[in-house]
TrEMBL record:
<dbReference type="GO" id="GO:0008360">
    <property type="term" value="P:regulation of cell shape"/>
</dbReference>
<comment type="function">
    <text>Involved in cell shape control.</text>
</comment>
<dbReference type="GO" id="GO:0051301">
    <property type="term" value="P:cell division"/>
</dbReference>
<dbReference type="InterPro" id="IPR048737">
    <property type="entry name" value="CetZ_C"/>
</dbReference>
<keyword id="KW-0132">Cell division</keyword>
<dbReference type="InterPro" id="IPR036525">
    <property type="entry name" value="Tubulin/FtsZ_GTPase_sf"/>
</dbReference>
<keyword id="KW-0547">Nucleotide-binding</keyword>
<dbReference type="InterPro" id="IPR003008">
    <property type="entry name" value="Tubulin_FtsZ_GTPase"/>
</dbReference>
<keyword id="KW-0342">GTP-binding</keyword>
<feature type="domain" description="Tubulin/FtsZ GTPase">
    <location>
        <begin position="2"/>
        <end position="205"/>
    </location>
</feature>
<dbReference type="GO" id="GO:0005737">
    <property type="term" value="C:cytoplasm"/>
</dbReference>
<dbReference type="GO" id="GO:0007017">
    <property type="term" value="P:microtubule-based process"/>
</dbReference>
<dbReference type="GO" id="GO:0032153">
    <property type="term" value="C:cell division site"/>
</dbReference>
<dbReference type="GO" id="GO:0005525">
    <property type="term" value="F:GTP binding"/>
</dbReference>
<dbReference type="InterPro" id="IPR045061">
    <property type="entry name" value="FtsZ/CetZ"/>
</dbReference>
<feature type="binding site">
    <location>
        <begin position="110"/>
        <end position="112"/>
    </location>
    <ligand>
        <name>GTP</name>
    </ligand>
</feature>
<feature type="binding site">
    <location>
        <position position="142"/>
    </location>
    <ligand>
        <name>GTP</name>
    </ligand>
</feature>
Amino acid sequence: MKLALIGVGQAGGKVVEALCEYEAKAGVDFVVDAMAVNTARADLAGLDRIPESRRVLIGQARVKGHGVGADNELGAEVAAEDADEVLSVVDQFRTHEVDAFLVVAGLGGGTGSGGAPVLARELRRLYTEPVYGLGILPGQDEGGIYTLNAARSFKTFVDEVDNLLVFDNDAWRQSGESVSGGFDRTNEELARRLGVLFSAGETNARGAVAESVVDASEIINTLAGGGVSTIGFASTAVNRPKRGLLSRLSKTADDETRDDGEAANRVSSLVRRATLGRLTLPCEVAGSERALLVLAGPPAEISRRGMERSRRWLEAETGSMEVRGGDYPMKSGHVAAVVLLAGVTDVPRVKELQRVAIEAQRDMHEKSATSSAKLQELLRSGSAEQDALEPLF
């Protein structure tokens, strides 16, 4: 699947960088073009793989290149004001090659949480290709303002994209890890999952041919219908002893059956781990509206029997009949399974964000009423004191 990547804010730009890095290292080709949008000049300067012509500084008239200070309302305002500047760069993309746009943002900061939904809305207005979002939720220990921003931005982002893929930092944080090191690691983990998923249907230089191709239409149909999606991933090393010529010639039907049974069991185990293990957004698998399974690795290690068995298992686990699947042959010492669960509904983290948003809205109304009452009391007190003053003349 060919993507146009747009990173909004610091976290969005970093994830787009990680995706470009994965594409270069893996020798795959799924990124048509990539750009970064920010209100902070320093954040844009820290990017390496995105060329300067694809780095757009917005809000200069308002914030002078210093960022919006975690104010997502201001982030939305400057994105709306400077949307034409962003779209003029998108016009330079080879959009005739693009299957979909992916707008990436951290939902805790100001520029990403405020600006990403605005830019997604503009892209959907101008282009017929799907516009997907990738939202990164802040850790709960990052501070109340970031959680509040995420709570405010989440529903807006869901409404403005064709589907929102979500990554929850809380589910991936490791104790004792530095902040920068933690973000670098999680960005790499996220890029690997997305990289395998979106590059699966693209032709690679090695000339390997899939038995069941996962093309752009499979991914688009899985993400159709909107809502929230999550991604699971699992991999295992394959250590197959090299066979000599005599061994290969004398191989029996029992050997082939044993090998296929071993590969099928490996595939089934991988798919279960990917689905029930650490998802990018932890959720209840049951109730997912649609699912997509991608198996990647050496063709000899991807068992068709294991694939069919795993698809039936996914149908039973999700309760959905819309479970698609395919293989992605590649030269590797590992076999990997990627599971995309679309239209998930039972998500504890999202329910927590909704609770925070409701409480924050109630608190703001109460504080506003209290402040107004205190102001009126102050004005009345000042007026009474003025009236009590005796004239000097």
